[in-house]
Structures are given as C-alpha cells and as structure tokens.
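Quick check before the chapter quiz. The format below is the same one you will see on the exam, so make sure you can read both the input and the output lines.
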Amino acid sequence: MNNKRAFRNFTMHVRSTPDRVFPLLCPVREYDWIENWECEMVHSRSGFAELDCVFKTRHEDVEETWTVSRYEPNELIEFILASKFRVMRYRFTLAPDGENGTRIEIEQTATALNSEGNKHAEDPRFELHMKTLEIMLNHYLVTGKMISNDEALRQVDARAR
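Here is the expected output.
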C-alpha cells in the first residue's frame, strides 16, 4: 500500500541571532513563548533538547511521540514525530539574516500510516500555524514575554490584508 505523503516548507524571519533563537526550539523552552504548550519529557540527559531527546504531546486527543534526530547547535534541529496515524519529520535550519536576524527554513514531511492518516496527510493549517509561531517567537525575542494565541492570530490576519 502506498499511503499519502505530503511536503511543506515555510521560511521564518526572526529578529535575533541564531545563538538566541536555537535554544528556544526545545520542548521545555517552548513553555516560555507558546501559549498553551504542553509536553511530557520522556528522556533527556540535560533536561532540554539534545540528540535523541524524546518527549510526548497530544494533538486532537492523539498521543504523539517526538525524537530529536539531528542536533547541530545554532544551525539545525530535526524532530521525528510518530503517532498511530502518521510519521512526520520537521527540520529547522537556521542561518544569519542580516546583522541581528535569523532565517529559519522549516521543512515538514508527513507520511500517513493508514487510511485514517491519509485523511490528515494534507494540513491546510500549516502555513497559518507557522505564521502564528513566527509572531510568537519574534514577540518573545523582542519583549521577553509571551503573546497570546489570539493576539498572534490577529496580527497574522492584519498582515494578510
């Protein structure tokens, strides 16, 4: 059987250097800047993201298990997510963007594992989700404070006009 596979890309531009941005791409540090973020750390020697770190999340009442499969500080972090419906790879590649900015190239590959997964292989909300995270991350980097999901969505909507 050939289940569905989908590829998505998004480029974020954030107003800080890779050495400040990279540590925030961590399941523990995401509590600092993503409202309503929840995860359960399963294994990490340092307590933060590192190679082979494992953590769990829930998405639409489905448990997802994440593993850090590549970890190159300030340059690249890759996660493999597995659930009963799909396997996904998220790759975040960071590069300097101007004098004090970072460009984050985000690649997502989603592979359905069964017919239910085939229904979710296409994710029309991916771009909206990435734009919202970009606003949240920039807000945190500039102010040191979390912005609400609602306010971030309002800003995404205002930029689209």
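If your answer matched, good. Helices lie at 18-21, 30-33, 115-120, 126-143, 149-160.
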